[in-house]
Amino acid sequence: MDGTRPGQRRSARFPLGVEGLEERRLLSGRPGYSLLEIHPAAHPAIRPNLPVMPFATPTKKASFIDPSVLIDHGQSVVVSYQTYIAPYAILDGTGGAIKIGTGSVVQDTAKIVANPRHRDRLPQVLIGNDVEIGYGATIQGPSTIGGYEGAAKPTAIGARAVIDGATIEPGAIVSPLARVGPGVTVPTGYQVLPGMNVTTEAQATNPNLGKVALVTSSQTTTLAQTLAFAQTQAADYTSLYQGNSATGVSPGANPAVSGVNNGNLSTVEGASPEPPSSFASTTPAKTIPSFLSPLRGLVGGQLANFPARIIGLAEFHQRAWQVALHLGRANSIRADQGQPIQIGSIAHTGNDVVITSPLGGTLTIGRKFRAGSHAVILSGPNVKAQIGDDVTIGSGAVLDRTSLGSGSTVGPDAYLVSSTFPAHTVIPARAIYINNKFQGFVQS
To answer: Which CATH architecture has domain 269-441?
Structure first.
């Protein structure tokens, strides 16, 4: 989870500073200060600050980093309070530095790379307070997203979007599968439309060019709900990990602070239970994944060594070993946000596939399901998304609150939102459908 892999040569450490950036205006509004001096305070993502950070923090204040998260050069990655880093995210501080503020969320399989080009400089990725980095999104330094303290506003980067050396001002939104290129600034109150490739400042600021529009009140409301729930999850997973007194009080913790015990990794690894959440009033009695058994039907199983993150009431009509055999690496199937997720059988998935239901709703997937690497399949609030038998989702495609009939195929990098398609539908690669209407194609 942290630092250099066994057998790998450790590269030089890059302290959290601003060499070469003295004239750059940082999110604090004060030029020439290090990341550690930008409020709010943050802490390096190295032991003992994992998976709860900082070490021995009270539940309601702590950040939580899922044990499956890959952190390279954690001494150059700092995270503030009440932030949730979801399964299989990547935080790469090699050759640069990353700061993530308070109350933010980095969703499943998102990738933040401080210095993708490894030049002789010290790029930084600054992610402010109240920022969502979406499922499978990529942030490449030097980039600035959102703001800190009084400058902060809810800011979002959508699923599979790419921010490449750009600035996303507080209160802006980058939609799924969009890209913002080097040197571009997306202003407060603007959204980059789905699948758009924004490479100039004119494209980022002029809606008449067709690549941006104003953020809607509905988007702002949904984003606020997402961030509030992520903060709840940071606390809930912290409690699930360190809240059991049977493990004994954590050495070095303040004895006056209750609820800080030796952690239990088995509760937050592999196939694991759902923690208490803001949806507790609607949570069914079963809160752990279920797999088909030979004689007893579906049986709940907490399997810490399962080779994927499966959380909450996800029901598989396959044996656990069969599910494991057919999943690619770093798959995240999470029913801790909306449930149940029901899957008939998995024929094959690629790597870094995400299946979940943000802010509620249900998702039913039929038999012989296939998904390519980096696919994202989402349901949503008050939605009962259904995917039929023998459906194939292409690599990098994003399905959001969308249903597909049996025998359908979705091409790579397509984007489908709030739509319903009959059996045997074929969606072309990179096609965008919103509310059942074709909107064009994802741009290169």
So the answer is: 3 Solenoid (2.160)
